[in-house]
């Protein structure tokens, strides 16, 4: 496969952009390959600057649930661009998108638009702290909520000891307010809440963890998290940046029938433009400025181009049969990959996970239920698998700990081609 132009651009990019990329995982570091510079995309396919074509399962890390350049989204953006791209004043579009979110997501009564998932979680945490007058936050091992200071934190040595920063540049004084517990372990959470629950402003969680591979909550786990937080007046924040409008029209909370106090969104609600949002109970949301005392703002928040892209995307998702079809295609892909792994003689070394249109193959024989299980994966074997898939025109996430997304644009032919390619790639990775 010729990647000459991508290589040249990467070298040039490194002169002007740290690491040559604007978000670290794009650099393909952990898979040892050249990042493909993308020239265009349509439906389920992307093309790089050397003219190579790929079936895309990254889908811009989740937003492109309708596939790339969906006609109705593109049309909406074009029409709006003619009318201006930002006013810094209220528009009818933001009211419309807010209303759609409130109608689709069961727990959300009011919603505030921001520009990224990171901004959404950062603002939700501040709001929870302002509302409760408490400082501590509980998060889960392996959970990712963007690059917010308070959330780039891992567990210290004991369960309820101070958290420690996972990046230089975060004062220990910030990190110490964050407590990290393992996912799918209700006793660990209970212990912390019993000890310091009255000082805890929020528990923030991805209801299905999708940044440590794919970790699905065990039966009854989320219900218990809801109970424990409610008992102590702790704000339960569901980070639905990935699961929102993905697991079901109302996200993970509708899928599992749990009512969080606040929810964070991003990705899909922007239809591929930079958007985030956080919302929830009126009583809490009204604590935000200008109604309430907690400050939060944004020059480009509710940007009309982003709003129209979000509206058009959600309109498509409201059509009948969309989620069923996404699920069926993903089932087909998962089943096909399992068969391919069996043929390649590697099945026993793998762990397959899927929920609705999100899926993953971990290169471990452990049944992955938490972050520590995920870390047992053979990342070298994944890298070999990844490179062989890419070479055959299948673009997977360049990391073992990221998932594959199905879009409405993926075809039966795409899936069959992916399965065939996987058989070859699994064989290559089988001996590692
Ligand atoms: N929360 C979750 C669950 C995410 O997956 C991400 C991004 N992958 C974020 C928050 C941060 O979103 P953004 O990259 O838009 O800041």
UniProtKB/TrEMBL annotation:
Signal peptide from the UniProt entry: none
Designated gene of the protein: hemL
EC number of the protein: 5.4.3.8
Cofactor: pyridoxal 5'-phosphate
UniProt keyword terms in alphabetical order: Cytoplasm, Isomerase, Porphyrin biosynthesis, Pyridoxal phosphate
Family membership: Belongs to the class-III pyridoxal-phosphate-dependent aminotransferase family. HemL subfamily.
Enzyme class: isomerase
PANTHER family: GLUTAMATE-1-SEMIALDEHYDE 2,1-AMINOMUTASE (PTHR43713), GLUTAMATE-1-SEMIALDEHYDE 2,1-AMINOMUTASE 1, CHLOROPLASTIC-RELATED (PTHR43713:SF3)
Catalytic activity: (S)-4-amino-5-oxopentanoate = 5-aminolevulinate
Modified residues (N6-(pyridoxal phosphate)lysine): 267
Pathway terms, separated by semicolons: Porphyrin-containing compound metabolism; protoporphyrin-IX biosynthesis; 5-aminolevulinate from L-glutamyl-tRNA(Glu): step 2/2
InterPro entries, A to Z: 4pyrrol_synth_GluAld_NH2Trfase, Aminotrans_3, Aminotrans_3_PPA_site, PyrdxlP-dep_Trfase, PyrdxlP-dep_Trfase_major, PyrdxlP-dep_Trfase_small
Domain of life: Bacteria
Pfam families, A to Z: Aminotran_3
Listed name of the protein: Glutamate-1-semialdehyde 2,1-aminomutase
Cellular localization per UniProt: Cytoplasm
Assembly notes: Homodimer.
């Amino acid at each position: 496969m010729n990647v000459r132009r991508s290589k040249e651009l990467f070298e040039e990019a490194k002169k002007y952009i740290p690491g040559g990329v604007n978000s670290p995982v794009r650099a393909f570091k952990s898979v040892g390959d050249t990042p493909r510079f993308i020239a265009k995309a349509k439906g389920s396919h992307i093309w790089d600057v050397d003219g190579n074509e790929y079936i895309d399962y990254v889908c811009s890390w989740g937003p492109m649930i309708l596939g790339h350049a969906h006609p109705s989204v593109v049309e909406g953006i074009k029409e709006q661009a003619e009318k201006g791209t930002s006013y810094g004043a209220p528009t009818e579009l933001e009211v419309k998108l807010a209303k759609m979110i409130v109608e689709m997501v069961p727990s959300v009564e009011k919603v505030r638009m921001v520009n990224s998932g990171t901004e959404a979680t950062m603002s939700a945490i501040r709001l929870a702290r302002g509302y409760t007058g408490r400082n501590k936050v509980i998060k889960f091992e392996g959970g990712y909520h963007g690059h917010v200071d308070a959330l780039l934190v891992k567990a210290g040595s004991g369960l309820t000891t101070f958290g420690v920063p996972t990046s230089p540049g975060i004062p220990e004084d910030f990190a110490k307010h964050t407590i990290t517990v393992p996912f799918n372990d209700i006793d660990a959470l209970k212990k912390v809440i019993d000890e310091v629950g009255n000082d805890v402003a929020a528990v923030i969680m991805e209801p299905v963890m999708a940044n440590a591979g794919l970790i699905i909550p065990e039966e009854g786990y989320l219900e218990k998290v809801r109970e424990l937080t409610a008992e102590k007046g702790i704000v339960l924040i569901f980070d639905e940046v990935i699961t929102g409008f993905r697991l079901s029209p109302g996200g993970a909370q509708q899928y599992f029938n749990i009512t969080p106090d606040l929810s964070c969104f991003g990705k899909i609600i922007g239809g591929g433009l930079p958007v985030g949002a956080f919302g929830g109970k009126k009583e809490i949301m009204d604590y935000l400025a200008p109604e309430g005392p907690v400050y939060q703002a944004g020059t480009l928040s509710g940007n009309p181009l982003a709003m129209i892209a979000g509206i058009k995307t959600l309109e498509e998702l409201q059509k009948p049969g969309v989620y069923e079809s996404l699920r069926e295609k993903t089932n087909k892909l998962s089943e096909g990959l399992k068969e391919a792994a069996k043929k390649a003689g590697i099945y026993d070394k793998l762990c397959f996970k899927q929920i609705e249109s999100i899926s993953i193959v971990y290169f471990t024989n452990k049944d992955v239920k938490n972050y520590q299980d995920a870390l047992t994966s053979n990342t070298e074997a994944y890298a070999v698998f990844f490179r062989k898939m890419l070479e055959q025109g299948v673009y997977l996430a360049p990391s073992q700990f990221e998932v594959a997304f199905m879009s409405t644009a993926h075809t039966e032919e795409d899936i069959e081609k992916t399965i065939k390619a996987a058989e070859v790639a699994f064989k290559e990775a089988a001996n590692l």
